[in-house]
Design a protein that fits this description.
kinase (chains A, B), Carboh/pur_kinase_PfkB_CS (chains A, B), alpha/beta, four-stranded mixed β-sheet, Ribokinase-like (chains A, B), globular, kinase activity (chains A, B), Sugar kinase (chains A, B), homodimer, UDP-N-acetylmuramoyl-L-alanine:D-glutamate ligase
Chain lengths: 303, 303
């Protein structure tokens, strides 16, 4: 099942209590694409980079079977750069610097051969750009959207308009409270699902994730990791694994949605074990299935 | 299976964003005893109250089948009083007033007919008093202990000495980090289990609970409630339901421990739906089994 991924690509400088990593390939679409690439051979990436995006970066994506024909390379421009420092508890971070560079003028153009993609994943970018993507694709079976507080606060109306065309919406608990205006997550979920997305996933970081559908609520635990080196990209990686499993399953029902949440959680748990995409870009399918099994075991009760 | 419960009894004045409740019967042992009373007919309560502890309070306990012969009633004294106000998010509260009264001189005396109790539950009181209780009982099959940051900071050595004689230790995530000195819960669990308790439960409030045993980790979700009126006693109620199920099951293994965590979570989810012990004192077994089933469904994946 073909997956179109649209979002940001960036070079990140990341500092955590465990060390630092500079010039590491990042960006929402990078994490989503890498994560979903373990489940599908048809990952089509659309984004914009500068001429500092080198062969080894393209190679990293190609080695994971990601189609980069949709990447716009701006010859005289620089790729989006972001740098941050995580606090001791790793749950909070300070953005030290943001240089949008070529990303400031990003105008997603979906190549003809991408427009028939069955699944469309809109990474965390301006909701107006997300809308532009939806205007170019020919009715996909599934549209997944991710966002962040920056857009919820900055472009709430544009976001809500875009949400009307979204099937599955992924955001974290504080963003859900912000968008709904209600501190209670169950009430928030009802309010947000009324904005359009029938399926809603609220990520709770180290506390797992909640899946809301017409058939009820699914609570996925977080994997109790002994060491978290870098949380960067965990949310996008979750989305990629979630989406990837659905594409692999080829059908969407409550059982597959619940499994997809665990696969997304499994991928995210790998992501944070090393800096940037280091771990994510070098996984074996067997590791993924093992981690998925550990997630099942975490909440299993033998009868 | 007989259960000895030792802890505090109090009258609470509670204020939450949803209203207030004054002079409501509370205290750790009250919540533990009421919660476990739905699973066992042999709940034996030891604590101290003043002559302001009236017939209707005894009646409430007796109506739930709780044996109160172990309650010391101090004729010229007043019962422990505590008043608090919860913040908007209900996750934090301010203690407005604490009057220990007769509880200040509490010296637990275990009646002869209680000393053979199979299970002993030490509610959140001074670890030195918890030790005094263990000195009076004749080798119980199971000792469960609850505590709080007040004792972890105030009497760490006494607490650690007592923990050496404990089978199951229940505390919350911030207390676990405080006691272990490690922010990571998996590492905290290993450090704390090395202090004595083979089985450890770390409560995470609205995020569920983690069970650590020699056989691995179990992650229990929290029930996504639409309205939480009063979190007071939820932790003690959890302990009571957990303990109660184990007593009812009559055997202790990983499966029963995992089920017990869900029954404890189910009881806690009822507790917070009304003020004080109001809901907890008036439940039907069927409701409890239904709520338990909803907890199972929360993390179930059909195959």
């Amino acid at each position: 099942m073909s997956i179109l991924v649209v979002g940001s690509l960036a070079f990140d400088d990341i500092e955590t209590p465990f060390g630092r990593s500079d010039n590491t390939l990042g960006g929402s679409s990078t994490y989503i694409a890498l994560s979903s690439s373990y489940f599908s051979d048809e990952i089509k990436l659309v984004g914009v980079v500068g001429n500092d995006f080198e062969d080894n970066h393209f190679r990293l994506l190609h080695n994971n079977g990601i189609d980069t024909k949709g990447l716009q390379v701006i010859d005289n421009g620089k790729t989006f750069r972001w740098s941050c420092r995580y606090h001791y508890d790793m749950n909070t971070r300070d953005t030290l610097d943001t240089q949008l560079n070529v990303f400031a003028d990003f105008n997603p153009h979906i190549p003809l051969q991408y427009r028939e993609a069955k699944y469309v994943c809109l990474g965390n970018i301006d909701p107006e750009l997300q809308m532009k993507v939806l205007d170019q694709v020919s009715n996909p079976e599934l549209v997944i959207l991710d966002t962040m507080n920056f857009w919820i606060e900055g472009k709430p109306e544009e976001l809500k308009k875009t949400l009307e065309r979204v099937d599955i919406f992924i955001l974290n608990d504080s963003e859900a409270r912000l968008l709904s205006g209600d501190p209670n997550l169950v009430k928030s979920a009802r309010i947000i699902r009324n904005m359009g997305p029938k399926t809603l996933i609220i990520k709770k970081g180290e506390h797992g994730a909640l899946l809301f559908t017409d058939n009820g609520i699914f609570a996925a635990p977080a994997y109790p990791l002994e060491s978290i080196y870098d949380p960067t990209g965990a949310g996008d990686t979750f989305a990629g694994g979630f989406l990837g499993h659905l594409a692999r399953a080829g059908e969407i029902n409550d059982t597959e949605l619940r499994k997809a949440v665990l696969y997304g959680s499994a991928m995210a748990s790998f992501c944070v074990e090393k800096f940037g995409t280091e771990k994510l870009a070098n996984l074996e399918l067997l590791e993924i299935e093992d981690r998925y099994q550990s997630f099942l075991d975490l909440s299993k009760i033998e009868e």
